[in-house]
Amino acid sequence: MPVTLATIRAVNGLTTRWSDTVTGNGTAFSALGVWPLLALLADGAGGPARTELAEAVGLPPERSAGAARELLGALRTVRGLDSALGVWTRRTLELREEWAAGLPAHAHGVLTGDPATDRRALDGWAAERTGGLIERMPVSVRDDPELVLASALVLRTDWLRPFRDFLMLPETGPWQDRELLGLYRTSTLLDRIGVADTPHGRVTELKVLGDTAVDVHLLLGEEHMTPGQVLGAGVGILDRRRPVLSGLHFPYGEPGPGVSVVKLRTARPQPPTLAVSTAAFEVRAQHDLLELDRLFGLGSARDTTRGHFPGVSDFPPAVGSARQSVLARFTATGFRAAAVTAVAAAPGGVPALRWTTTRIRAAFDRPFGFLAVHRHSRLVVASGWVTDPEVYPREAAMPTEEL
Predict the structure, then answer these.
(1) Computed from CA positions of residues 376, 380, 385, 389, in that sequence, does the dihedral angle turn out positive or negative?
(2) Which residues contact 291 (CB under 8 A, 6 or more apart)?
(3) What is the spatial distance between Cα 198 and Cα 221, in angstroms, rounded to a whole number?
(4) In this structure, are 240 and 358 located in the same domain?
(5) Per the domain annotation, does 399 fall within a domain?
(6) How far apart are CA 103 and CA 66, in angstroms?
(7) Do residues 191 and 249 make contact, with C-beta atoms less than 8 angstroms apart?
């Protein structure tokens, strides 16, 4: 994905700053969905709005539109990731040719002024571009907008190695004694897990690789750490600003949150293994970006007594609303059922335990963060914080294997 390092750092920087606003509630968000819109607006803005948007975007305004176009083009080359940009205007609002030329082909639609008609058109676009995952455009049409600028992202990746379902019963923490839909798997790839030291505490990172170029990184911090500190550490690891101790070099004991390393006696030679348990989750969230107008550089642009985007139109509009709807789903098979069959073979006697091996156990059994990351560029596609995982379905058969 040929995107400049400056653009990737700008998008990931917005992810970090947005993470700082996350409270203890479960949520999901995509800075990647917001950033191109802010960049295009910055290019057409004037006055204080231009300065504020440039700060939020992290690039000079004169470079922002080009970077947004480059990024949107590059996203179309990523397997499993679909993106789209759309702009709708009232018939009476003419876009400046220079600004409109930077929009993708066929991206421009017309607002009729009839709320029902416009709602159907906008919702239809959102549902079509996301495969029905998001069914409504998160914007009001009853306020008779002059212009709507929107982006859509949809990500699908299946795990290279699926998990198995089990009944997770956390013994401590916020999820104590809850019956959760747990996910479990083992691997001999110890470098999939690591622990980073940060100024706020240690963070355990688990990489779950997808069959596209997108992976999901699960992040578990120390119990006193805030969601923003944990997610920020995850972005710091991606940017190589945080050194990581790989599972290949873990000492015995508890090298990181949720991690234990033990020596086991075995009946035959076995390589060291990594045993991971986590919780399935689905997170839906709605964000009013104007509640964080300083973060997104929309403070001055909210002033509807004057226009702020002379580079967009001769009749420059102001920002009336800005929202995002997000869904994130983590299952045994991928990021967005599964029958488990267990065959138990009774041993023919008590084996001689002549060998030893190392077992790393990692349990994500209390609130944790996640980053969906493009593997090669390290661009963060979506992020979130999990506080309300999936409940174990009572009609399901309990796995007999002891985890």
Answers:
(1) negative
(2) none
(3) 10
(4) yes
(5) no
(6) 10
(7) no
As given in the structure block, the two tokens for residue 103 are 């929009």
CA distance 21 to 361: 31
370-394 pLDDT tens trace: 999 999 999 999 999 999 999 998 7
**Helix/strand/coil for 250:** coil
**Rounded Cα–Cα distance for residues 65 and 29 (Å):** 22
Whether 373 contacts 381, CB under 8 Å: yes
Q: Rounded to an integer, what distance in angstroms lies between the CA atom of residue 380 and that of residue 309?
A: 29
What does the CA dihedral 57, 62, 63, 68 come to, rounded to 10 degrees? Answer: 60
- Predicted TM-score (pTM) of this structure: 0.90
Please identify which residue in the block is written with the tokens 């699926």: 162
Q: Which two tokens stand for residue 294?
A: 């300083």
CA distance 105 to 95: 15
Render pLDDT for 29-51 as a digit per residue (tens, 0 to 9).
999 999 999 999 999 889 999 99
The CATH number of residue 108's host domain is 3.30.497.10
In the 8-state DSSP scheme, what is residue 247? G
For 279, phi and psi rounded to 5 degrees?
Answer: -115, 140
Find the domain containing 32 and state its range. 5-77+81-155+283-328
Is residue 263 pLDDT above 50, yes or no?
A: yes
Check: CB of residue 386 under 8 Å from CB of residue 236: no
Q: Counting every residue, how long is the chain?
A: 403
DSSP 175: T
Distance CA 306, CA 48 (A): 12
Angle, helices 31-44 vs 47-57, to 10°: value is: 150
State how far the Cα of 367 lies from the Cα of 34, in Å rounded to an integer: 25
